[in-house]
């Protein structure tokens, strides 16, 4: 009923055996963009992402594929793969959908308890604090990251994984602030790990 209400004509829902047949040995390694931040903390994750996405592209052969900007590094990995391998698909990166208090919408949010849910917007507030610092002329990576860490520290009960200022294409620290930069963050609240990001132009 939900898919029909969105005018969906066809649903492709392959099982594990279809996507990961026994004996498969080939994987896709995207390179440098997959190594910092999420790649450093989740070794092999983006290799798996790139492999399964390329398999889906080969099977479905879509004209357009839509991915959410909340997973910014995943978007960069897929974009790099598509360009490097000449995959004939147009990528669309959709803006992050948010709750009324700024929390990025995610299936992971359902794992938060009522009390944990109250803490969760602190990650977005920290990123916003970094954005405000940049727009007010703070153009030093360490200084902006310090602003974000101080803001999130005001909310006890959150374990910060990282709060970083990076180039949105390489996910390394930017050479300067004349181009767009990405403020990316990951934090744990209880057993739930949340990620978020903001682009600052």
Comma- or semicolon-separated keywords:
Rossmann fold, Pantoate--beta-alanine Ligase, Chain: A,domain 2, 8 helices, two-stranded parallel ribbon, 37% helix, 201 residues, three-stranded antiparallel β-sheet, alpha+beta
Q: Could you walk me through the main structural features you see in this protein, from its secondary elements to its overall organization?
A:
The protein is an alpha+beta fold and 201 residues long. It has two domains: 2-94, 3-Layer(aba) Sandwich (Rossmann fold), CATH 3.40.50.620; 107-200, Pantoate-beta-alanine ligase, C-terminal domain (Pantoate--beta-alanine Ligase, Chain: A,domain 2), CATH 3.30.1300. 37% of the residues lie in helices and 18% in strands. It has eight helices and five strands. It has helices spanning 2-5, 16-19, 38-41, 45-60, 72-84, 114-119, 122-135, 141-153, and strands at residues 64-68, 90-94, 159-166, 181-189, 192-200. The protein has a three-stranded antiparallel β-sheet, covered by helices on one side. A two-stranded parallel ribbon has the order 1-2. The longest helix is centred in the first third of the chain and has 16 residues, at 45-60. The model has no long low-confidence stretch (mean pLDDT 97).
């Amino acid at each position: 009923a939900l898919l029909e209400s969105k005018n969906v004509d066809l649903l492709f829902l392959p099982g594990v055996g279809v996507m990961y047949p026994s004996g498969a040995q080939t994987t896709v390694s995207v390179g440098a963009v997959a190594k910092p931040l999420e790649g450093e903390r989740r070794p092999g994750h983006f290799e798996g992402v790139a492999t399964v996405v390329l398999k889906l592209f080969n099977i479905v052969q879509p004209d357009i594929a839509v991915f959410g900007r909340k997973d910014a590094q995943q978007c960069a990995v897929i974009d790099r793969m598509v360009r490097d391998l000449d995959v004939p698909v147009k990528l669309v990166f959709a803006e992050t959908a948010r709750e009324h208090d700024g929390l990025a919408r995610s299936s992971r949010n359902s794992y938060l308890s009522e009390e944990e849910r109250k803490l969760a917007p602190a990650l977005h507030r920290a990123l916003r604090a970094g954005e405000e610092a940049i727009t007010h002329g703070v153009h030093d990576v360490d200084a902006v990251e310090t602003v974000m860490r101080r803001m999130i520290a005001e909310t006890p009960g959150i374990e910060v994984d990282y709060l970083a200022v990076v180039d949105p294409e390489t996910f390394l620290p930017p050479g300067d602030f004349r181009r767009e930069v990405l403020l990316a963050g990951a934090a744990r609240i209880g057993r739930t790990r949340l990620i978020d990001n903001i682009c600052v132009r």
